[in-house]
Amino acid sequence: MVPTRLIHLVLMLFAVPISVVAQEEHPFIDAFDLTVLDGRIQVAWTMKGGSTCDGTEVERSTNGVTFSVVHRIAGICGDPSVAVPFDWIDGSPPEWSTLYYRIRMGVDGTSSVKQVVFDQLVTTDQRIFPVPVVENATLALNVPLSAAVRIQVHDTQGKLVQELAGIGRNHTLLLATFAPGAYTYTATTGSRTFQGRFVKE
After folding, report:
1. Residue ranges in the chain assigned as alpha helix (H)
2. Of 36, 39, 93, 146, which residue is 20 to 30 A from 116 by alpha carbon distance?
């Protein structure tokens, strides 16, 4: 039988330390920021004075691994004497997703990768998740941030089982104590009405 101390020693020798290393910024980049706007994302970066490149691309990813080009700036970018700010608006970010952006400076490499959570609906009117619901659910609506919303949840017999009011686009339905089964919801704001159903496990 192998002594316990020997097992611990072997595990320590072969253990791989896990650490998070911050990605260094490209030497050509002086600043790189993402800003979530209403239905859009602003990508802003500054090339340091004295840094130039032939062609610049903005690349986007939904998993942080596979990137695709979403914007191109042709020709020479940057200035040999002064810092040059650049700005681009992503007008069609994938809704309700975590997005990753980076700047590719021609053949001179890429910037660091910046991450942002875009929890807005752009082309879809409503979404409820997770599916199916286990405890709580989020109801996302494509409405103004200042919209006053009233939500009612009914069971299959039409009985009102939950009613709540809130402001904005994202609303939490507390469903942990609900019996398993199908439910319907109605959300109203101003003259608009949203309706849907979900299943509680």
Report:
1. 4-14
2. 146
Neighbouring residues of 147: CB distance < 8 A, sequence distance ≥ 6: 141, 167, 168, 169, 189, 190
pLDDT, tens only, 149-176: 999 999 999 999 999 999 999 999 999 9
Q: Does CATH place domain 126-200 in 3.30.2140.20?
A: no
Name which residue leads in pLDDT, 121 or 7.
Answer: 121
Architecture per CATH, domain 29-118, reads as Sandwich (2.60)
The two domains 29-118 and 126-200 share their CATH topology (first three levels equal): yes
Return the domain boundaries, the chain. 29-118, 126-200
Cβ-proximal residues to 135 (8 Å cutoff; 6+ apart), any chain: 175, 176
pLDDT at 12 over 90: no
